[in-house]
Design a protein that fits this description.
The protein is α+β, with helices and mostly antiparallel strands. The protein contains 14 helices and 21 strands.
Length: about 450
């Protein structure tokens, strides 16, 4: 891993918001206008007012939107809604949640990570998805306007013996700040502390040195930080390598979580397809001959548990006829994938989401049923997939098992990125627990 360091976080005033439930939010890229309005309806100081000036954040907005976000953040700091810590710290962060009936405590830490080019090798930052221009332009304008990194990148690292987290959590008591997001089965408690101990900090830095960090969520945020660094170099009239080492533009706000943490959950991202000519199960079965065995599903669609699907098995749900099909890989599947993706390693070609995208959707469904152009949607749960299919623009749902965590590290080490929407890490990090200042004066507290 590149160098990590503590920082003096900007966060909500602990005297006003020991319970941060009203002011934290899910990551900006999973919110729409309705969700933003609902959060602001709870509290006008909700972090989305600063972090999500343009909604959705897929394209860059007008300059005034980012200026307004910066003015609002300045007002909050001036009036004590938010404040900056007086000393640098590392910030242990726990998420308590229920998944399949079991309570989990996922432990991480907010720190700054020194920027390196993506996929630079041993000890570097390794992506698993490609990025798009629009979201980067939006985040970059926000960073320049506000002078902060408002939301963290979610990073993973190897800590098989739990040394890093055991060090950071060794002396903590009650959380300094805590809060809930979500409701019912999807309620997540967020807890945070600060550790100000030079000895512990140095041990953590030493333990993380030369370990790769894998980006779980936040590829656009990390790429934006790289672009911000390049912009600062241009402003200073120097090469990136010649930016003063302590300048905050050289670092990116991360929440680091061990790959071995039992609370690290990947949910599947199921596909929804519309814009097709009438779908026929018989036509699909004939077209897939040799690639998959197609048979009617013997259980109700709502009883499908994606994590229990075997490797390479998919469930297709016809939302019009309310019929489900089970697709089991055939003898010719891997040969077909080798022909479609000859330049990719075997680990990529065996990936369920790669088979789904390249072979099933692009290779079969689109040319057979979608000549007019497919419309696409996504869902993290079977229940939501079924709900979206009923009376909507979509005709077909494809249920996929979760991408194995080991695939992320394996493909990352090979320099391979996965298809878009390959992973859905649950739960998402909360935005608003900490912000990282980008002005040298603030960063050197």
């Amino acid at each position: 891993m590149p160098e990590v360091r503590p920082f003096a976080a900007i966060r909500f005033n602990r005297r006003l918001y020991a319970d941060v439930s009203p002011v934290i939010a899910p990551p900006y890229d999973v919110l729409d206008a309705a969700a933003k309005a609902e959060l602001l309806g709870r509290n006008e100081h909700n972090v989305v007012a600063v972090d999500l000036p343009v909604c959705p954040a897929k394209d860059v907005g007008p300059d005034m939107a980012y200026v307004a976000a910066a003015e609002l953040l300045g007002d909050w700091l001036q009036h004590g809604v938010m404040e900056q810590d007086k000393r640098r710290a590392m910030y242990p962060y726990t998420q308590v949640f229920t998944d399949h009936g079991r309570v989990h405590h996922r432990r991480g830490v907010f720190v700054l990570v020194k920027l390196t080019a993506l996929g630079e090798g041993i000890g570097g930052v390794i992506p698993h998805e490609k990025t798009h221009k629009g979201p980067i332009e939006d985040r970059l304008k926000l960073m320049h306007a506000t002078g902060v990194q408002a939301s963290p990148v979610f990073g993973l690292f190897h800590d098989p013996q739990g040394k890093v987290m055991n060090l950071l959590y060794s002396g903590v008591g009650r959380p300094e700040q805590h809060g809930h997001l979500g409701s019912g089965n999807h309620s997540v408690e967020h807890q945070m502390w600060s550790v100000i101990d030079a000895h512990i900090e140095q041990q953590v830095i030493d333990l993380l040195r030369d370990k790769p960090v894998y980006i779980a969520d936040g590829h656009h945020r990390y790429t934006t930080a790289l672009q911000y660094q390049a912009d600062v170099a241009k402003q200073l009239g120097v090469e990136i390598k010649d930016i003063p080492i302590s300048h905050p533009a050289n670092y990116c706000l991360f929440c680091l979580v061990p790959l071995e943490d039992s609370g690290l959950k990947i949910w599947p991202t199921h596909r929804l397809l519309g814009g097709m000519s009438p779908f026929s199960a018989d036509t699909l079965a004939a077209t897939l001959s040799g690639l998959f065995t197609v048979q009617e599903l013997s259980i109700n669609i709502t009883e499908v548990v994606p994590s229990e699907l075997p490797e390479g098995v998919f469930v297709i749900y016809d939302g019009v006829r309310k019929e489900a099909l089970l697709l089991t890989p055939g003898d010719n599947l891997h040969t077909a994938m080798a022909k479609i993706q000859p330049g990719r390693p075997e680990a990529y070609r065996k990936l369920d989401v790669a088979v789904l995208e390249h072979l099933l959707i692009s290779g079969v469904i689109e040319p057979t049923f979608g000549q007019a152009g497919l419309t696409r949607g996504y869902s993290a749960t079977v229940a939501d997939l079924v709900h979206q299919l009923h009376g909507s623009e979509y005709q077909l749902g494809i249920i996929i098992r979760p991408t194995p965590l080991k695939a992320l590290a394996e493909l990352g080490s090979l320099g391979e990125t996965m298809p878009q929407k390959s992973t859905y890490f649950y739960p998402k990090l909360a935005t608003g627990m900490v912000m990282a200042p980008l002005s040298p004066a603030q960063a050197h507290h």
